[in-house]
Amino acid sequence: MAKVVTMKDIADSLGISKATVSLAFNSPEKIKSETHKKIMDKARELEYLPNPAAKRLSIGKNYTVGFLLPQSISRSLDNPYAVEVLKGIGAECEKRGYTVLIIPPLKSSIRDALMNAAVDGIIAMGVRFTGSIKDVLMRRHIPAVSIDGRKSDGINSINIDDESAAYEQMKYVLGHGHRNILVIELGRDEYDQAECDEDSTGERRLKGYGRALKEAGLSIDDVKRITCTPGIEDGKRAFEKYYDLYKPTAIISMSDAVAFGIIKKAREKGIGIPKDLSIIGFDGLSENYFDFTLSTVRQPAYEKGSKAAELLFSAMDDDGIRGKSIYVDYCLIEGESVRSI
Fold first, then answer.
1. What span, in angstroms and rounded, lies between the C-alpha atoms of 282 and 84?
2. Predicted local distance difference test score (pLDDT) of residue 191
3. How sure is the predictor about 216, in pLDDT bands with cuts at 50, 70 and 90?
4. Three-state SS for 332?
5. Sheet holding 99-103, edge to edge
6. Can you give the C-alpha Rg of the chain in angstroms?
7. DSSP reduced 3-state for 32
8. pLDDT in tens, 54-74
9. How many other C-beta atoms can be found within 10 angstroms of the C-beta atom of residue 4?
10. Distance of CA 320 to the CA centre of its chain
11. Which residues pair with 122 in a beta bridge?
């Protein structure tokens, strides 16, 4: 096996210090141009390959942004919304010469995942920033931005007005005459042990549903409610488990991915959409999935990702940026998956 050439080998062959060789690779402006050329020529002659990890350690930067997820990679990326967010993050990082590292919980621990991630900043999606998580960020001096986060976390965030969006979603279904409604909420992640999370995305949307129901002379207790992880396969399983049990005329899903899974499984069983079952999703990612347009609340997933990255880079440049909230627009898409009864 060939010997690995090191900076010391270059230094010894030229009769100079290792520190001078290090400067040639990391801060060439600090040495004479003739010395720099001599070192680079010798490095090529010896076929020296710089160690990226060592270079990052020497300059104190990883040139990597972490995308922190609340579930495993396979489950998270089963949701097209998460994929679009990731594309937005990636596009902004590429402009600045940064890579993106996807970080799922490590052995069901978000804290442990953060402790071991070689990143300069964190963009989290749907993650609750507990005291232990914020402690790790503070100790490592890592700035963070939350997508679909909570105001109570005190973290820079990118959101939509979830309560108002959900209000419009429920009002749209009620306006088509539906009263036998099944609401599919966002499921809590396995790592999150909080007994109550009144500031979560799901809870904000439930408030919107409750407001629309109250205007119709109903309450949140007048609709069936289940929770579901936002993935296509999860939607299929939810349909199998609950459709025959509740026989709703309409399903309101907090996730397009869940709606996709429900539609796929309903079609397998010969249940027509919207002839036999109306359904409305949330995210606005339905264009290329079916031969009809899914009624949904469209939120700009790609824009959320890119704006989150922009805000993170601003926070990395200015450590004083904390708790800044940016809201992006949403819109209700009146598709073909909800019919009047």
1. 14
2. 46
3. very high
4. strand
5. 99-103, 64-68, 121-125, 144-147, 156-159, 325-327
6. 25
7. coil
8. 555 555 578 999 999 888 888
9. 9
10. 24
11. 66, 144
Could you give the residue ranges of the DSSP H alpha helices within 188-327?
201-215, 232-246, 256-268, 301-317
Asked if residues 165 and 299 have their Cβ atoms less than 8 Å apart, the reply is yes
Cα 107 to Cα 68, 74, 103, 160, distances in angstroms: 14, 15, 12, 31
Q: Write out the H or E segment, with its range, that includes residue 200.
A: none
Whether residue 92 has pLDDT greater than 80: yes
Q: Which two tokens stand for residue 322?
A: 């904390």
Strands (E), the chain: 64-68, 99-103, 121-125, 144-147, 156-159, 181-186, 224-228, 250-253, 278-283, 295-298, 325-327, 331-333
* Residue that has been written with the tokens 């270079």 in this structure: 55
Beta strands in 222-339 (DSSP E): 224-228, 250-253, 278-283, 295-298, 325-327, 331-333
Structure tokens at 134: 């914020």
Residues 102-115: tens digit of each pLDDT: 998 866 688 888 88
Three-state DSSP state, 181:
strand
Residue whose structure tokens are 């804290």:
111
Instruction: Report residue 92 as tokens.
Output: 């902004």
The number of beta carbons lying within 10 Å of the beta carbon of residue 139 is: 10
Please name the residue that has the structure tokens 């040495």.
Answer: 31
| Interatomic CA distance for residues 219 and 6, integer angstroms | 70
Residue of 78, 66, 110 lying closest to 255 (CA atoms): 78
- The one-letter code for the residue type at 130 is T
Q: Check residue 55 and give its pLDDT.
A: 54
Tell me the C-alpha distance between 107 and 113, whole Å. 8
Show the tokens assigned to 202.
Answer: 């799901």
Predicted structure pTM score: 0.79
Q: What SS3 class is residue 337?
A: coil
- Binning the chain into helix, strand and coil, the percentages to the nearest 5 are 45, 15, 35
b or e along 169-179 (b: 16 or more beta carbons within 10 Å of the residue's beta carbon)? Answer: bbbbbbebebe
Residues β-bridged to residue 226 = 184
Residue 99 identity (one-letter amino acid): T
Phi-psi region of 179 (alpha: psi -120 to 50; beta: other; left: phi over 0): alpha
